[in-house]
Each structure stands twice: as structure tokens, then as C-alpha cells.
Amino acid sequence: MKCPCNPTKLYEDCCKKAHQNIRSVTTAEILMRSRYSAFVLANIDYLQKSHYSLTRPSKFEKKEILSWTKSVEWVKLEILKSTENTVEFKAYFFENTSLNFIHETSFFIKENNHWVYKNGL
Q1: Sequence-separated contacts (24+) of 38-45 with Cβ below 8 Å
Q2: For 68-89, what is each residue's pLDDT tens digit?
Q3: What range defines the domain where residue 61 resides?
Q4: H helix or E strand, kind and range, residue 107
């Protein structure tokens, strides 16, 4: 299977490593890519694990995220800019036959010795 974050790579050589062991993630961009792939694959447990504990969605929100991510068709991830702890990206998806995108600058920090998503603008 091709990796959702980068179709030139195989999932097993890319985001699967992060999904199986979050401590293997060495940069904010790798975490961002693995989170996008988790959205595509509806891997909500990984999304929770890779989210900063103080801003992590509640159990109710987790169910809403799962429902939404399964209701859209993910198209592609485009990384626009990446620094040590920020990643600006666009994530494209079809929802109700309309092409939409999320454009965000995400902020990442280390918590418990691994990268996590803190918040985004």
C-alpha cells in the first residue's frame, strides 16, 4: 500500500513505523505526515497518542473525529513549509462531492520524550 502522506513511498516504509512506535518519530514534519496518514486510515488512537495531553480531544470529540474522517475522501497532503517545531500544510479532501482543504500551520512540542501536536492556526 502506498503511504497516504507521500504516494512515492510505501506505507510500511513510512508512516507505519510512527503508527507502531511514536518514539520513532524524529521531527515535527514526520509527526505531521504520520497524523495525516492516521486521519486517512481513521487511526484515532494514534491521533490521540500524538496529541499534546493538555489540548487532546475528549472521548466525545474522538468519536466525532472518527465519524468525520470516515465520511470524507482524502486526496493528498501538501507540505508548504517546515521548521523545527512548525509545519504549514494543506490537506485536500472530498466532502459531499466538493473538493475542500485544511490549511494550517501546526505547532509541535516534545512531551514524554516524543513529538506531539500542540495546536494549529
Answers
A1: 39/69, 39/74, 39/91, 40/4, 40/69, 40/74, 41/4, 42/66, 42/69, 42/70, 43/19, 44/69
A2: 999 999 999 999 999 999 999 9
A3: 2-120
A4: strand 98-111
User: b vs e for 58-83, b when ≥16 Cβ sit within 10 Å of the residue's Cβ?
Assistant: eeeebeebbeebeebebeebeeeebe
77 is written with which cell numbers? 497532503
Rounded alpha-carbon distances, angstroms, from residue 32 to 15, 29, 88, 93, 109 = 10, 5, 9, 16, 12
Give the separation between CA 102 and CA 52, rounded to whole angstroms. Answer: 20
Question: CA nearest 35: which of 73, 65, 58?
Answer: 65
The reported pTM is: 0.96
Query: Residue 63 sits in a domain of what CATH number?
Result: 3.10.450.50
Which residue in 49, 53, 57 sits closest to 22, CA to CA? 49
**Which residues on neighbouring strands pair with residue 62, listed in sequence order?**
none
In the chain, the number of structural domains is: 1
